[in-house]
Amino acid sequence: MISVVIPTFNEEENIAQCLVSLTHQTIPRTEYEIIVVDGGSKDNTCGIAKKYADQVFTQTSRKVGGARNDGVMAARGDIITTTDADCILPPGWIKRIADNFVADPGLVQLYGPVYPIEEGLRNKFSLFLANTFSRIGYYSRTFYYTLGCNTAFRKDAFIKAGGYRCIDAGDDLEIAMRLNDLGRIRFDGKLKVGFSMRRYQQFGTLQSLYEWVYIVADGGETDKYSYTRKDYKG
After folding, report:
1. pLDDT tens digits for 200-221?
2. What pLDDT band is residue 108 in, cutting at 50, 70 and 90?
């Protein structure tokens, strides 16, 4: 059993396409579950999610990391994979995750690159740089630039490591540092996920990256910026 955990907050415009992509995987639906953990949406996010997900409930922990932690604790699977509500998952995504963990019993975390859902050379170039940064960190073994929209864990290792810190940014980098002490971490270049560029289109790529770096450098939280729970235009 593999459990897919998805944090949400006012995602009625995007959650359906994400969940539909998850229901069209190449492995039987009985071999994985979908868990949506909502952050108190004011729109119809939960109503839509209940049409597709096995569990939909309101988070009790803080931030996106806390929502993922809540989802892990409710999960039945031995393997936990996380994604975002505005992502699109290719049909072979879950099977590739399963194959990686079956092939390597010592693997504790798996992650992969992203490609833009929206068209445009700027979007492709931005994610090319992000994926290159991720590869450099992995192959140099200096850092693991994982993304919560395309990562998977062994549940027991995740719990032993203490789960995500409930911070505003940088929780993906931080948990990988702790999991690295418990086993192997792998970057799979073919484990791709469709990633929405809406944040960068609305708020600007450089500004969004600056805010992320500022928050991470400040320990994961700051009163000056908020990286999560953005209000997007329809």
Report:
1. 545 455 555 545 455 555 555 5
2. very high
Label residue 182 by pLDDT band (50, 70, 90).
Answer: very high
Buried b (16+ CB within 10 A) or exposed e, 62-95: ebbbbbbbbbbeebebebbbbbbbbbbbbeebbb
The one-letter amino acid code at 174 reads E
**pLDDT 10s digits, 161-174:** 999 887 766 678 88
**Residue 218 three-state SS:** coil
* Cβ-defined contacts of 104-108 (< 8 Å, 24+): 104/184, 104/186, 106/183, 106/184, 107/154, 107/183, 107/184, 107/185, 107/186, 108/153, 108/154, 108/157, 108/158, 108/179, 108/182, 108/183, 108/184, 108/185
* Percent of residues in the chain assigned helix, strand, coil, to nearest 5: 40, 20, 40
